């Protein structure tokens, strides 16, 4: 039912609203307090894939030095949380990825539980990258679409306990 609603004009307008500043604030509140992302649920319904689990990451801005927060899907494999920097197939890596390169320490909220983590960038061409990428594609084929739509290699980050 949700996927049918999202494909209507009011449904598309709702998705646009959720992608704006106010919608993102609502989504961050929901993730912090319930562990649920309305934006992820509506996006998944729109593209026809099952919703992925989400987390909230807090990084330190590489230029501002201020705390930044982002809601995003994650993949958990062999007990490790991985983040995939698809950025919707845009030509640049997402800003949170740039922040992690400058300062690898981050705070994650997963299912309303907070933990400090340290980012380890997974090198493209390694067995770990290949296994993780194949696993992520089983969760949502959207990653294949993203990789095929951009010239950059989509980065993967392992978020390990700090």
From TrEMBL:
Gene3D superfamilies: Electron Transport, Fmn-binding Protein, Chain A (2.30.110.10). It catalyses: oxidized coenzyme F420-(gamma-L-Glu)(n) + a quinol + H(+) = reduced coenzyme F420-(gamma-L-Glu)(n) + a quinone. InterPro entries: F420H2_quin_Rdtase, Split_barrel_FMN-bd. One of its GO terms (molecular function) is coenzyme F420 binding. GO terms for cellular component: plasma membrane. Belongs to the F420H(2)-dependent quinone reductase family. This is Nitroreductase family deazaflavin-dependent oxidoreductase. It comes from Rhizorhabdus dicambivorans. The lineage of its organism: Bacteria, Pseudomonadati, Pseudomonadota, Alphaproteobacteria, Sphingomonadales.
């Amino acid at each position: 039912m949700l996927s049918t609603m999202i494909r209507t004009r009011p449904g598309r307008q709702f998705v646009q609203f959720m992608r704006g500043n106010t919608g993102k604030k609502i989504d961050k509140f929901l993730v912090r307090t319930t562990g649920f992302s309305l934006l992820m649920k509506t996006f998944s319904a729109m593209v026809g894939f099952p919703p992925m689990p989400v987390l909230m990451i807090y990084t330190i801005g590489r230029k501002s030095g201020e705390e930044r927060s982002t809601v995003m899907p994650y993949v958990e494999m062999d007990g490790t949380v991985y983040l995939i920097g698809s950025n919707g197939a845009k030509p640049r890596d997402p800003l949170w990825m740039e922040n992690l390169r400058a300062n690898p320490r981050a705070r994650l909220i997963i299912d309303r539980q907070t933990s400090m983590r340290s980012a380890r960038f997974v090198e493209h061409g390694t067995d770990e990258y290949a296994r993780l990428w194949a696993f992520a594609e089983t969760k949502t084929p959207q990653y294949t679409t993203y990789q095929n739509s951009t010239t950059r290699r989509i980065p993967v980050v392992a978020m390990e306990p700090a």
